[in-house]
## 1
Amino acid sequence: MANLGLAEYQAHAMRTAIYPDRLDNLLYPALKLAGEAGEVAEKVGKLMRDHGYSVGANFALTLEQKESIIKELGDVLWYVAALADELGYDLQYVGGGNLDKLTGRLFRGTLGGSGDDR
C-alpha cells in the first residue's frame, strides 16, 4: 500500500462514501465514528479478558492482534475523513490544527490537565 498524505487519503476515501444525505448529514458519520472507536476499545478489552493483556505487563501482541486493531483504526480514520468532509474541511487542515493546538500546549506547559482552552 502506498503512503498517502491525509488530504490524498481523504480524497480517495470519499469516493467510497455512500450514505444517506451525503454532504448534508453530520449525524451519520459522527455516530459511525463513535461506533468504530468503540470497536477499537472492544478489541483491546478482549485482549485483556481473553489473553491477559494489562498495562505494564510484559505482553507482546501477535501480528494478528495488531492487524485486527489496525483494521478498526482504518475504519475510524475513514469516518473522521467523512465527518471532516461533511464540514467542508480536509484532513490536512484538521491534523494541522490539532498539531498547532498541542504544540501551543507543550510550550505553555499545559499538555496535562483538562479543558479545551488550556
## 2
Amino acid sequence: MLPDDTLAINSGDGPWQDRAGILEGARQFAASGGKLVRLEFPRTEIRRYGQTAIIYTTYLFELESAKGERQTSSGRATEVFVLRDGKWVNPGWHMDSGQ
C-alpha cells in the first residue's frame, strides 16, 4: 500500500519520512519487542475526488514496550489514497497532536 513516492509527516517535530524510513521504523519497532495494543479512530470522514480519496480522522493509539511500559498518543490525521492500476495506495499523510 505504500508506493515508492510516499511521504509522511508524523506528529511531533521529527523529520518527514519517505517509504524506506517508514518501513525501517516499523522494523525497528517490531525488533524491539514493541506492540500496538490499542488503535481507535473516534471520528473519520472520507472525501473522494475522482481517483483520489482524502481521509480526515482523529486517532488514538497505545504502544507497549518489551518491558510492558505503555504510551498513549492521540491527535488528528489527514491521509491521501490514490487509485493506481486498479489498487488504492497511500502515498502520504500528516499527523498532529491536535493541540
## 3
Amino acid sequence: MARKCPLTGKKPMAGNNVAHSNKRTKRRQLPNIQTKKLYIPEENRWVRVKLSTSALRNVSKKGLLNYLKEQGLTLKQVQV
C-alpha cells in the first residue's frame, strides 16, 4: 500500500536538506501514517485501518462511519 492516507489524501512531499554551506540535497517528507484497530459500535466489530494522525483525531471526534460519509468513502475502501 502506498504511503498515502485514504481519508485526508496526505502523501509524501519533496523538499531539501540544507547544509551549513547552503548545499542542497533532495529529501522526502513522509506523512505520519499509522495502522490502528478501531471499534465500530454500529456494526459491533473491530476494523484495521491505515490513516494519518490528523485523520485519527477527526475519527475519534466524529466516529469512523460519520467521517467516511463526509469524505464520500466506504469502509471497504479504507480497510487494510
